[in-house]
Amino acid sequence: MTAFAERVALAAWLALLWLLLWGSGSLLALGSALLVGPLCLAACRLPALPAASRPRWRRLPMTLARSGGDVLASSLQVCWTTLARGPRARSAVLAVPVGHPSAAALTVVVNRISLEPGTLVLGVAPEAGEIYVFVLDVRGPEDLERARRNVRRTAHDLLTTLGEDVPDGRAPGPEGSGS
């Protein structure tokens, strides 16, 4: 994609975000979106991220569907934990290996994991190839291992979809969300 095409695509994305922010598709909102997006791009020159890999577009629908299912399941689990255990709910911080993906891919992985209710990435150690993740509702060692597997599976799915190298070459099991 040429630099001009990338900037047009980014301006279109900013315009869409502007419309979603205002919750309106009126002509005034659309006109201001078409004005504000390019102005933001002109004022804030973003450095180009090198494309370290080629995304696997055929995997994208499944990755998005699995992410949506994970977010829904985690939302229900956080709701249940809050109602059933309240302040007695226990949590933990896990170190999870994610390998050494590019900065852009690591950013996507960290944001996706933090998007899921009941989890939050607290730290990243790119040189060690690990992320540190807070998880809610940990009652024993099996919950710790399940949460670690879920985070590894999420990272594996995203890195594979983004065309990045997967740590250890092992895919975690197909267990559903539970973090």
Chart the SSEs and their pairings:
Blueprint: H1 3-22, H2 27-43, H3 60-84, E1 91-97, H4 103-115, E2 119-125, E3 130-136, H5 141-161
Antiparallel strand pairs: 1-3, 2-3
Helix pairs in contact: 1-2, 4-5
Please give the radius of gyration in angstroms.
19 Å
How do the SSEs run, as a string of H and E?
Answer: HHHEHEEH
CA distance, first residue to last residue:
38 Å
Beta-strand segment tally: 3
Q: What structural category arises from helix and sheet content?
A: mainly alpha
Number of helices: 5
Provide mean pLDDT, rounded.
Answer: 85
Outline of this structure?
The protein is mainly alpha-helical and 179 residues long. The protein contains 5 helices and 3 strands. The model is unreliable at 169-179 (pLDDT under 50).
List keywords for this structure.
single chain; 179 residues; mainly alpha; three-stranded antiparallel β-sheet; 5 helices; 54% helix; 12% strand
Report on this model:
The protein is mostly helical. It contains five helices and three strands, in the order H-H-H-E-H-E-E-H. It has helices spanning 3-22, 27-43, 60-84, 103-115, 141-161, and strands at 91-97, 119-125, 130-136. Strand 2 (119-125) and strand 3 form a beta hairpin. The longest helix has 25 residues, at 60-84. The two termini are 38 Å apart. Residues 169-179 have low confidence and may be disordered.
